[in-house]
Design brief:
By secondary structure, this protein is α+β, with helices and mostly antiparallel strands. The protein folds into three domains: 1-198, 2-Layer Sandwich (Alpha-Beta Plaits); 200-250, Orthogonal Bundle (DNA polymerase, domain 1), CATH 1.10.150; 267-362, DNA polymerase, Y-family, little finger domain (Dna Ligase, domain 1), CATH 3.30.1490. The chain is built from 15 helices and twelve strands. Strand 5 and strand 6 form a beta hairpin. Helix 10 packs across helix 11 and helix 13 (281-301) packs across helix 14 (334-348). The longest helix is centred in the C-terminal third of the chain and has 21 residues, at 281-301. It is globular, with a radius of gyration of 23 Å. The two termini are 36 Å apart. It binds magnesium ion. The site of magnesium ion (MG) has 6 residues, from strand 1.
Length: 412
């Protein structure tokens, strides 16, 4: 058992400590959730225990395997292969249709439960989230015990298992949750990177897909450690800026924050309090441009479009006001958002000195449904086009609102 204090280091000012991040990931989400639903309806067999798959429309040639049981896996069935080919490998295979509405419900229940432990929760996909416990660890005697508690509670309450990875950043937490499945808790703290992560094959590194792995092997890098110890310039020469990202990830470096604003609310906003009051319009425009880039990137990361753009102000007396407008069509480009913001600026600002300015976007829509992250789960060779066609066929069958990004799930 690892004692908590080993991972809470305060500096001499008493204000810096290592972060404690959990990555919570549902094991085999679609199949598990379908199993739970079937059992609740009186189905006698737990489909997690038999050769079974969740598959897209079997009658169409594009029907593919979205999730497979461990037994189906033993037959050599792979995610994203056609149901037709999966049946050839295992003639008594049971095929079940996905039920996105139920998956979203399970996802919401789990996220609501986990959010009891920290407000800093970022939903990463329908079945994964990050939880930042840095500021709350004093509440818990042992962080590992807490992880086991959360894991077991989810099983007892909802009937499905999760893996929990713990690290000092999101990358390490995510790598750790992937170590051994199902129903496990793993740590990958800074001082464990060399022993636990470096021996792994390079394709196990987050964001390293098949094509990148092949290139890295040609360069003589077979393990994550090989990349971590190499001359970063070689990677940059081959992969441009992504080379630097690979190098940092191999060394367990990731400074991104657990961003609860993106996943928990139905708006994305950013604001800045200026050093002093200003009526310098050029300065304000520059600030707004930067802010539009921030909210725009957050939006596109979620593969969403916005339909409502707002500008927010605070005067030196801290009187707040804002003005918003609807867009004609859903937009997600910086240019389109910036145009709206600037026209709002001219419409609503009377050139009095202001202290704080911000941008807020809301009214999100997934004009095009492309949440491929649902399928990332251990399937690096997933064929995006096939998945897109499966998603389309699900939409055709159940209506276009059936698949929504997790960020649109209502928070009560
Ligand atoms: Mg998962």
């Amino acid at each position: 058992m690892i004692a908590l204090f080993e991972y809470m280091f305060y500096n001499l000012d008493g204000d810096i400590m290592k972060r404690i991040i959990f990555h919570i990931d549902v094991n085999n989400a679609f199949l598990s959730w379908s199993a739970v639903k079937l059992l609740s309806e009186g189905y006698k067999i737990d489909i997690r225990q038999i050769p079974s798959i969740i598959g897209g429309d079997e009658s169409s040639r594009h029907g593919i395997v979205l999730a497979k049981s461990p037994v189906a896996k033993k037959y050599g069935i792979k995610t994203a292969e056609t149901i037709y080919s999966a049946r050839k490998k295992c003639p008594n295979l049971k095929v079940f249709s996905p039920n996105m509405e139920y998956y979203r419900l399970m996802s919401k229940k789990m996220i609501d439960h986990i959010s009891n432990y920290s407000p800093d929760l970022e939903q990463f996909s329908i079945d994964e989230c990050f939880l930042d416990l840095t500021g709350t660890t004093y509440l818990y005697d042992d962080i590992l015990d807490l992880a086991y508690k959360i894991k077991d509670e989810i099983f007892e309450k909802f009937g499905f298992t999760v893996n929990i990875g713990i690290g000092n950043n999101k990358l390490c937490a995510k790598m750790a949750s992937d170590f051994e499945k199902p129903n496990k808790v793993h740590t990958l703290f800074e001082n464990e990177i060399e022993s636990k992560m470096w021996p792994l094959p390079i394709e196990d590194l987050f964001m390293v897909g098949e094509k990148t792995a092949i290139k890295l092997k040609k360069m003589g890098f077979y393990t994550i450690g090989d990349v971590a110890k190499c001359d970063c310039k070689r990677l940059i020469k081959e992969f441009k800026s992504f080379g630097n990202t690979i190098y940092e990830m191999a060394n367990g470096i990731d400074n991104s924050i657990v961003d609860s604003t993106i996943s928990q609310s139905k708006s994305i906003s950013v604001s800045l309090t200026l050093d002093k009051d200003t009526d310098d319009i050029e300065l304000l425009k520059k600030v707004l441009l930067h802010q539009v880039d921030e909210v725009g990137r957050a939006l596109r990361k979620k593969k969403l479009y916005t339909t409502i753009v707002a500008i927010t102000f605070k005067t030196s007396e801290f009187i707040s006001f804002s003005k918003q407008c609807s867009t004609d069509l859903p937009i997600n480009s910086n240019n389109a958002i910036y145009d709206k913001v600037i026209s709002l600026l001219y419409k609503s600002w009377n050139f009095e000195k202001i202290r704080n300015i911000g941008v807020r976007i809301s009214g999100f829509t997934n004009k095009r449904v492309t949440q491929t992250s649902l399928f990332e789960d251990g399937n690096k060779e997933v064929d995006d086009e096939k998945i897109q066609s499966v998603l389309d066929s699900i939409k055709d069958k159940y209506g276009s609102n059936i698949i929504n990004p997790a960020s649109l799930i209502d928070k009560e």
